[in-house]
Write a structure and sequence with these properties.
Chains B, D: InterPro entries: Acyl-CoA_Oxase/DH_mid-dom, Acyl-CoA_Oxase/DH_mid-dom_sf, AcylCo_DH-like_C, AcylCo_DH/oxidase_C, AcylCoA_DH/ox_N, AcylCoA_DH/ox_N_sf, AcylCoA_DH/oxidase_NM_dom_sf, Mycobact_Acyl-CoA_DH. Chains B, D: This is Acyl-CoA dehydrogenase family protein. Chains B, D: Belongs to the acyl-CoA dehydrogenase family. The complex is a heterotetramer, with two copies of chain A (370 residues) and two copies of chain B (415 residues). Chain A is an alpha+beta fold and 370 residues long. Chain A folds into three domains: 7-119, Acyl-CoA dehydrogenase/oxidase, N-terminal domain (Butyryl-Coa Dehydrogenase, subunit A, domain 1, Orthogonal Bundle), CATH 1.10.540.10; 122-214, Butyryl-CoA Dehydrogenase, subunit A, domain 2; 218-369, Butyryl-CoA Dehydrogenase, subunit A, domain 3 (Up-down Bundle). Chain A is built from eleven helices and ten strands. In chain B, α1 (7-23) runs parallel beside α4 and α9 (287-315) runs antiparallel to α10. Classes of the chains: A alpha+beta (370), B alpha+beta (415).
């Protein structure tokens, strides 16, 4: 029994943190937040060069062939640094979908380029019901039509895995769609956190190649969402911890009524409660990392628990980080809002908290049936 | 106990309603309905300042600008109940007086209570009529919750004062003609004892106004820098070094004039849940949603009726309690929780903020980004709990390590 | 507009409080809590002599014919004093059911004795699903059979209004049953708050007289539960306020680390939050009192809002009152547990909080249909 | 990272499991399952003290009584992981060692760390084997959270000390043979500086034990009164006026030895919700119930895994953090909230506490009545938050008005 990362994994974490503290400053995050670039290409290159993109891609497909534990460690650091890069879309979703459902040819074609950081991939699943709502995505004769929104990194991705109904099927199928093809129209959409860009994709007869078996999208996505949930939970834990540190540091430094505000119980206890949330989330994510790495039957429940607790912790810490900062906490110039934005984005981007809560209970109950 | 109008009240309500019907800019109604929170969004090309000044002027001419004030200064000595009725009848158009929140809630009442006859004569009419826009120059970067810790200095020079320092969170500073300034006039005295209140012209030489960009991008807040700004002594409000007492009057007024309406976000959430279809039917039919709605519903109605009760107590001559503190304390975190709850219902679509793709016109997304400020501005949640604990429940104040010490010694300890 | 009680009503409140502070000490509450008496007969007589039992009973039936506002004021004081008397059962439920559904003869027979404090009545509705569960209550040929539990004051009541199905009806009917009749067996059952006694009633062919129209029980009960909810909400507000006062007083008096514990922000803010709950509950109950008095169409929603907020406030204040007291807060000897018990009893005795939450939303939505 | 046993661990687990299988009183299992929380309820007529002493003795003889201790004192120098495995395998039978919580968690470790060789020789074996029952004499009516404010005096007399005063919240004082006593030996020193730790026999003349009745009626707590109780100086534990340091060791041990299991009430709630039929079907199918369950589920599992992680850190030689504080902090209010939630589901039937009419054998009703104590005993929620804030996050301590002042001056200020 050993409920902690190994020394090698800790070393990986230290080196990732070192690089990101230098390369991925909040100034860089703001550049993406305030600009039109899809993501920060310099940081992405650095990450790719360190092998982070291919950490969990098998060596035969150009990756490092390390395990998921290493990927979890990396995810935590990217979350801590609020890295403005297409990691979730490309590594957590696109690559994992390919690994699980791709043919050998598909894997050989795309995974090496993902590992090199040369290919940006994403998943196009959601179909908004807002003003832009359209007919549901459908594939007929190998051509895709429909609208997807929001699509993470949809503006800069080279390729998307699209969930669509083939012909008159009752269940959807996954399709690979080259986003530079004819019949693909992309529109940037603004989200709660513009440091991670999203787009609306309109498909008007774009060529689509099946990924995995026909009608199997729901099943494949279910598995991959569990994996991605663990990886995103590590990002959330990383972000939560950083937000707590910033709040703590400010509480030690800011003086009111002649003493540091961190000496007032209202602030002390607020920070203590944030630490409790974080500790609970961290413990659940560690367990989920083990379940992911060991492909345990516990993964579905563990992933949901990690997701639910990490979402709670990041929202809690990022919100109260603003509160501890007071007025300057909600200025554009201070970094607090960057964490607030990211926490609220991640709370929604793999499905809502209440959906994951329901999944968690359904899975616990299956596991412990009476 | 009667939640309905007496005959006199009904008559007053009719008068108000008739006047609103005949005089309000009804074409702006849809715009005001859509305006999120503190912001006023008007049709493209319309001058927001001019539109607000126009509405204020019209109200002033008809005696509706500040009905609780004495008749001598443009009011009609209205009772608390009449104030409430007017507020209810003015309704949405109250938003068009946003620019004058400081005029009517802060500067005006302070001058009325603490000003000399000459000051009242000169300043009050343009304050109420909206000819002058006022701003409040109290908070500083190093003194937010601890207002009395402010450092902006006013030093005696000839027949007036020279001001140096910096203020922050100043709403409407760009539009303002006048400012109400609290400054330190004697740093050798204990922190509350060395402050003085002034009124000053915002076009005085040496004033620089810089807008603050906030988390939601646009904002009415500013930083104001003072470099050797001169204020004649007849613009001093109240005695030298008596500024803290004047400030308390101001803050008290702020509480008195707070309306019965506090925005908790509940009405919007209820409306949204009644319309929104989830995978399992209308959101409002989900037991989880129902339970949450009920918990917020009683807070929203409780705040509404508590404010009404405060008005009744005021009518009987009792001094209103901390109802305003409670309203803001409850509403601040409710706004935040409600916004998160609504976005959760929207699932992935919840992260969209563009009004043309977002659900429910992106209102809850705006609420989410505004709500952190609500829990801080005008007293943080923590300060409000202290106020309730100390002023209502009679619990001891926090231990004060900076009490009875000359201000400049605290300040040095601080650096 | 006047959102407060009148001077006369305030005077009534002062006199009720004066009498109860003298007559209804917590020592008396404990005597019922620890003993076998159904309630405190001395206090009940005093209350009856002051006219409290018949405050809202019309003069023609022996009452004072005052309004519900007066009854609300009285209820608040009884709640504050944790009065161990059958007020809810006899005045809020039994008398209100009679007033709403009774024939003139039934009213004339019972209401004057209620007003005098000479008759204890109750409502027997719940049928437990625990080990004691039996067949549902039914009336055939004017004879009642079945089991009801818990029945408030079921041990000492003279008469009960029983909800039962007549013959093969699909909807239940109300019946008056003299509890001294043959075929009635009573067993005391212990509840969360033994200062208010409850019983299990077994009916084996007891004579039953119809109250109100056949099959109308649900409708009648719905109306009367709304009225009772308002009156119980006032009791809850009274209890919450007293619990807050006790906590505040203790926080001022108890010293730790060389200063009153009430000078620590953790305690100050806990008390402030209790005050907020109380203020919200009080405001909602006042509005509901007005709706009750004026028989407004707002009553159903207002009663539910009063009930939900008052339940929250009393549980909140009674729980944190213990927390402020620390160790002695959960000793038998200190009074804190008396409030904790009562708050949890009242939270369940007219149906659960979640049931009232659902009612509230259903009623708000009817009112404000889109 | 591996949540499964290594081969060595698996071997150790098998040894433990085999021994339990062969030696535990399996006939008591249903009774232990039904025992609510801190209480141990055994078959009618069975002597609870004897049954517990018997189990402890059996474990001692086989080397399972306190496996983390050095072999010299009856342990087997077990690793943190082995401690966890033993805890998991002993499972329900741990309840049968409730009587020895103080022996094993407090007194024993303190003597082990701070005792003289003679004290260890004389006291440890009967402490671990359960021949002696121990109690802890720390808290006083006027010093709960503020432990160092205690007033019980020990004054020098001849070759020993005379004790006068009162202790409270003493578990097992009636059954105890020995007590660990913290007393004030010099009131002229500052409050933490004038304390000394002793061990004393509970049958010493002048000791009176009075049980405390708590909110749930029965309780293992007592008040203990000391009237001129004599303690020989060789029963002093550590230096004169060095008692605070010894007490900190004790409290640290308490934290170290806290198990990986913390009772949050969640497992029972989940089980109940899976069985309970509401008007609208199984409780667990209600979205409101589901959402609440999920929120509690992640706290319960989070606490479990956090405790496991602490064990891993300990294995690596790191000093465990405040995991125990977090566990109790979260579990205390969870127990209370869960109890209320379950009673709410039961609706009117929820108010019944008699096991023969109550639903789910009245377990949640018992939980409701026990939960207030959980949020107070062994550190209130507020003290635990302070511990986390100060010891983990490095925030300043509360302002101490009683620091560096002779104790008798504080005490007088207090009266």
């Amino acid at each position: 029994m050993n409920f902690d990362f190994s020394d090698e994994q800790r070393e990986l974490q230290r080196s990732a943190r070192g690089v990101l503290e230098k390369e991925c400053t909040t100034a860089k995050v703001r550049r993406v937040l305030e600009g039109d670039d899809g993501f920060d290409r310099e940081i992405w290159s650095t990450i790719a060069e360190m092998g982070f993109c291919g950490a969990a891609i098998p060596e035969e497909f150009g990756g490092l062939g390390l395990g998921y534990l290493e990927l979890c460690v990396i995810a935590e650091e990217l979350g801590r640094a609020l890295a403005p890069v297409p990691f979730d879309s490309t590594v957590c979703l696109f690559a994992e979908l390919l690994k699980l459902a791709g043919s050998d040819a598909q894997k050989a074609l795309y995974l090496p380029r993902v590992a090199e950081g040369k290919l940006i991939g994403t998943l196009a699943q959601a179909e908004t019901r807002g003003a832009a709502a359209g007919a549901r995505a459908a594939v007929s004769g190998g051509k895709l039509s429909g609208t997807k929104c929001p699509v993470m990194d949809g503006g800069s991705a080279d390729i998307a895995i699209v969930v669509a109904f083939e012909e008159q099927d009752a269940a959807p199928t996954l399709f690979l769609v080259d986003l530079s093809s004819e019949g693909v129209e992309r529109t940037a959409v603004e989200t709660l956190d513009p440091s991670r860009k999203h787009a609306l994709l309109r498909f008007g007869g774009a060529p689509a190649e099946r990924l995995g078996a026909r009608g199997e999208a729901v099943d494949i996505l279910g598995h991959v969402y569990d994996r991605a949930a663990v990886l995103v939970a590590f990002q959330q834990v990383g972000g939560a911890e950083r937000a707590l540190e910033l709040a703590r540091d400010y509480a030690l430094q800011r003086v009111a009524f002649g003493r540091p505000i961190g000496s007032f119980q209202a602030i002390k206890h607020m920070l203590a409660d944030m630490f409790v949330s974080l500790t609970i989330a961290r413990a659940n994510t560690y367990y989920a990392a083990w379940a992911l790495q060991s492909d345990s039957a516990e993964l579905p429940a563990a992933a949901a628990a990690a997701r639910v607790s990490a979402t709670t912790a990041f929202q809690h810490c990022s919100t109260n980080n603003i509160q501890v900062h007071g007025g300057i906490g909600f200025t554009w110039e201070f970094d607090s809002h960057l964490f607030y934005r990211r926490s609220n984005l991640l709370a929604l981007s793999l499905g809502s908290q209440s959906q994951w809560e329901a999944k968690l209970v359904d899975r616990m109950r299956t596991r412990k049936a009476v | 106990m009667d939640f309905e109008d007496s005959p006199e009240e009904a008559a007053f309500r009719k008068e108000a309603r008739d006047w609103i019907k005949a005089n309000a800019p009804h074409d702006l109604r849809p715009w005001l309905e859509r305006s999120p929170y503190t912001a006023v969004e008007l049709p493209p090309g319309m001058d927001e300042v001019a539109a607000q000044k126009d509405w204020q002027r019209r109200k002033y001419d008809a005696g509706w600008a500040c009905i609780a004030w004495p008749e001598a200064f443009g009011g009609r000595d209205a009772s608390p109940a009449e104030r409430l009725i007017w507020e209810q009848e003015e309704g949405l158009f109250r938003k068009l007086s946003t620019l004058f929140l400081i005029n009517l809630g802060i500067s005006g009442p302070t001058i009325l209570t603490c000003g000399t006859d000459a000051q009242k004569e000169a300043l009050l009419a343009p304050c109420v009529s909206g000819r002058h826009v006022w701003c409040q120059l109290f908070s500083e970067p190093a003194s937010g919750s601890d207002l009395a810790g402010l450092r902006t200095k006013a030093e005696r020079t000839g027949d007036g004062w020279t001001v140096n320092g910096q203020k922050i969170w100043t709403s409407f500073a760009h539009e303002a003609d006048w400012g109400l300034l609290l400054a330190r006039t004697d740093p050798k005295l204990a922190k509350h004892a060395g402050l003085t209140m002034f009124v000053l012209k915002m076009d005085s030489p040496g004033i620089e106004v810089r807008p603050i960009k906030t988390i939601h991008g646009h904002s009415e807040f500013n930083e104001v820098f003072f470099t050797d700004v001169f204020i004649p002594d007849d613009q001093r409000l109240g005695p030298v070094n008596g500024g803290w007492r004047v400030a308390l009057t101001t803050l008290m007024n702020e509480r008195l004039l707070a309306g019965a309406t506090v925005d908790t976000g509940f009405d919007e959430l209820l409306d949204f849940c009644q319309r929104f279809e989830t995978e399992n039917g209308r959101a409002i039919d989900d037991p989880r949603v129902k339970s949450q709605l009920a918990q917020w519903a009683v807070r929203a109605s409780g705040l509404r009726y508590a404010a009404l009760r405060a008005i009744s107590l005021e009518s009987k001559g009792e001094v209103p309690g901390p109802e305003h503190s409670i309203g803001k304390l409850v509403a601040g975190s409710m706004l935040q929780d409600i916004a998160k709850f609504a976005l959760d219902l929207q699932a992935e679509a919840g992260l969209l903020v563009d009004a043309d793709v977002a659900l429910y016109a992106g209102r809850f997304q705006v609420m989410l980004m505004h709500s952190p400020a609500t829990r801080i501005l005008g007293g943080t949640d923590e300060i409000l709990r202290n106020i309730i604990a100390e002023r209502v429940l009679g619990l001891p104040g926090d231990i004060r390590v900076d009490k009875d010490i000359p201000f400049d010694e605290i300040a040095s300890a601080r650096a």
